[in-house]
Structure formats: C-alpha cells, structure tokens
C-alpha cells in the first residue's frame, strides 16, 4: 500500500514542476507581467511627452506669440525700442524657492 502512494506523490511533483518552473510556468508569467507593467509606465510617460511636443508644434505653427516667446527667452531678442535686462540667479537656487522665502510663506 505504501508504494502506490509514493509513486502518486512523485507523479504529482513531476507534473507540478513544469507548471511552476517550466518555460511557460507561473514564475515566468509573473516576470513577464512585471516587465509589461514597467513598459506600460514608460509608454505612458512617452505619450505625455509626445502630446506636449505636439501641442508646442501646433502652437508654433498657429501663431506668432510662441515664436516671439522663444525668441525672447532662448535668444534674448527684443522688439525695437525695448531694453533687455537679464537678472542672474544665485547658483544652486530655484526661482520658486526664492519666491516662497521672500513672500514669507511657511515651508513644511
């Protein structure tokens, strides 16, 4: 009576091995699922970046305001009769942090 139970137990173990550790087993499924989630997150970030770039392209194509803004901030161009003044910031500080400190806002 003992031998048939041992044989059945070994058979169950042999049949379970491919399910858990085989080529298409659960461990591989979990690994591929985690890779899929990471790729979906990366794709979502890239879709957001592409949407922002598409909006910027549409803005540049549709009007002169975006072109003028780029010319002002990136190239330092001015209109006739205007004076360009550049105020440098201290290295290592951000503009938002300076504004909070000067306005007396409490930082938590």
TrEMBL record:
Which sequence ranges are marked TM in the entry? none
Q: Which residues lie on this side of the membrane: Cytoplasmic?
A: 1-3
The compartments listed are: Cell inner membrane
Coiled-coil residues are 36-70
Q: Which residues lie on this side of the membrane: Periplasmic?
A: 22-108
Question: How does this protein sit in the membrane?
Answer: Single-pass type II membrane protein
Q: Name one Pfam family in it.
A: DivIC
Q: Which GO terms describe its biological process?
A: FtsZ-dependent cytokinesis
List the residue ranges of the region (Disordered): 86-108
Q: What is its main location?
A: membrane
Superkingdom to which the source organism belongs? Bacteria
Which keywords fit this entry according to its UniProt record? Cell cycle, Cell division, Cell inner membrane, Cell membrane, Coiled coil, Membrane, Transmembrane, Transmembrane helix
- What is a single cellular component term in the Gene Ontology annotation? cell division site
The record describes the protein's role as:
Essential cell division protein. May link together the upstream cell division proteins, which are predominantly cytoplasmic, with the downstream cell division proteins, which are predominantly periplasmic.
Family to which the UniProt record says this protein belongs? Belongs to the FtsB family.
According to the record's subunit comment, the protein's assembly and interactions are: Part of a complex composed of FtsB, FtsL and FtsQ.
The protein's name in its UniProt record = Cell division protein FtsB
